[in-house]
Amino acid sequence: MQNRYGKLASWVYNLDKPIGRSFGDQEYYRQRLEHCDDGPILEPAVGNGRIFVPLLEAGFPIEGFDASDEMLGYCHDECRNRNLSASLTRQTFEQFSYDKRFAAIIVPAGSFQLVTDIASAGAVLKRFFDYLTPNGRLIVDLDPIGSFIGQSGSVRSWVAEDGDLLTLTDHRVDTDYIAQTTLSHLRYEHWRDGSLMATELDLFKLRWWGVEEFALALQAAGFSDVIVSGNYQHGRPPQKNDQIISFEARRPEGVAV
Hints:
Elements: H1 7-16, H2 25-32, E1 41-43, H3 52-57, E2 62-66, H4 69-81, E3 88-90, E4 102-107, H5 118-130, E5 132-142, E6 154-159, E7 165-176, E8 181-192, E9 195-207, H6 211-220, E10 224-230, E11 245-250
Parallel strand pairs: 1-2, 1-4, 2-3, 4-5
Antiparallel strand pairs: 5-11, 6-7, 7-8, 8-9, 10-11
Pfam family, one: Methyltransf_25
Protein name: Class I SAM-dependent methyltransferase
GO molecular function: methyltransferase activity
C-alpha cells in the first residue's frame, strides 16, 4: 500500500518531527487562524500532531483525522500527556465525513501531495470546499518542484530514547514528468545492539504542482481570493529558492451550503 505510515515509519516521523517542532509553519498558522471565530478548524492528515497539538493547547477549536492508526496513536498520547481533550478520527482525504462545517481547513507540510491522481485531487479540493462555512478558508502548503527532483539515495538515522537505532534509506525509483509524480522506496530499519529487529518498506508516491496550476485547481473547486505565499511570509509571492509554498483561498458567500 502506497503512503502507508506503519509502525516504523510513524516512529521515525515522530523522532524527526516531534510535537511542536516548527519550520516556520507553527507561527504562520497561529497568525493566519488568529481571528478564526466563526467555527471549528479541521486538520486533515493530522499525523503525530506536530501542528495540531500546539494549536489545540493554545485554545484553537481544532479537530483532525488521519489514515494511519499509528500516527493517530502518537497524537492521542501527546494530547493525554498534556491533559488535552482531542477530537481525532481515522479517515481519509477522499472519504472524510462530518455532520458540521468548518471555518477553516488547514493542510500543512505538503500532505496534500500524497493525493497523486489529478482527478482525486480535484475531488478532495471540492470536498474541502463543501465542508467550509461561507467565507471559510482553506490553507494548503505544497513543496516546490525542486524538492522532488533532487538527489536520491539518502540514508538517515535516529537514536530512540532506549538507545535503539532507527534508519531510513530513501531511494527514488521513478519520476513521471507527465503525471508529475515521484515514487520512492523508503526502507525503515530498527536496530538493537547491532541486530536487525524489524524492517518496513513503504512505496511512497507524491505529486508536485505548478503554482498557477494549483491556483487554477482551487478556482475550479469553487474557491476565490487565492493568495499564494512563499516561505511562510503571507502575501509575499513565491521565489525561486523558497522551501515551501502556501495557498490560502476562501469559500465565497452566496454559495449554497
